[in-house]
Amino acid sequence: MLASIVGGWPARKGEFPWQVAILEDGKYHSCGGVLIDNCWVLTAAHCFEQYPNKTYSIVVGDLSKRVEEGTEQEFEILVVHVHENYTEEVTDSNDYDIALLRLRKKNGRCAQLTDHVRTACLPTSANQFPDGYKCVISGWGNTNTDDFSPNTLMKARVPLLPHADCSRRYRNKMTPRMLCAGYLQTGGVDTCNGDSGGPLVCERDGRWTVWGITSFGFGCASPGFPGIYSRVVNFLPWINNIIGEIVHLP
């Protein structure tokens, strides 16, 4: 039940400058992520279940997977921090599905912030965005259930849904560390295979906040089964603790 954008449309160049592409073996799109600091990427833990047996890198500032636009910045990953509670016992439920990636510096620095590379803000309050608030999902994942993966970054707008409604649909699989978003009755717009780890961002007063990290779902855009996201605000102490401890890394 991995998560891509179904029912979306192409993003514009530089529209989502915090969007990260995670590559396997330096060339195969694996997952998404979100830049929250010039040296740190937030993503989903399940994207790194094969680590360190597989090699991963990240790209920021990208729009098309097939066209080199001159705005891309690629980095090796220095450290992968999967949440310590994401264990074999919880992988079936996708609880604690969150990870932090520390980028390896190039020429003494991490990502250089430009018009096409920016960080998304972290949440400031658990009640910052209420149910019904429309937020944006993005990624290079499948645009339908036939495994068609687009070359261009895609986007879609989805409303936040009540936790209880989604918990009933997913038979109590949801935990307080998850949120859901989408169109409960009609479906048609959702993340799908390949978007895992990417951001659900909400905008207010020109400030874009990463409210969720794409985690899982049942099918893609199926009626009655909206997308499930790790609720970032619940992980703020963990995020701040990890970043605060690792500031001395090269």
Explain this structure to me?
This protein is mainly beta and 250 residues long. It has helices spanning 163-169, 236-245; strands at 9-10, 19-24, 28-37, 40-43, 56-60, 73-82, 99-103, 134-139, 154-161, 178-181, 199-204, 207-216, 227-231. The chain has two domains: 19-119 and 236-246, Trypsin-like serine proteases (Thrombin, subunit H); 120-231, Thrombin, subunit H, CATH 2.40.10. The chain contains two helices and 13 strands. The strands form two sheets. The chain has a six-stranded antiparallel β-barrel with strand order 8-9-10-13-12-11. It has a six-stranded antiparallel beta barrel with strand order 2-3-4-7-6-5. β3 and β4 form a beta hairpin. The chain is globular, with a radius of gyration of 16 Å. The chain starts with 8 loop residues before the first strand and ends in a 5-residue tail after the last helix.
Biggest sheet: strands side by side, in what order?
8-9-10-13-12-11
Distance between the termini: 36 Å
Q: What general form does the structure show?
A: globular
- Give me the Rg, rounded: 16 Å
**Total helical elements:** 2
The helix content is under 10%
Largest sheet: 6 strands, antiparallel, barrel
* Average pLDDT metric: 86
Number of domains: 2
CATH topology grouping of the largest domain: Thrombin, subunit H
Low-pLDDT segments, ≥5 res: none
Structural class: mainly beta
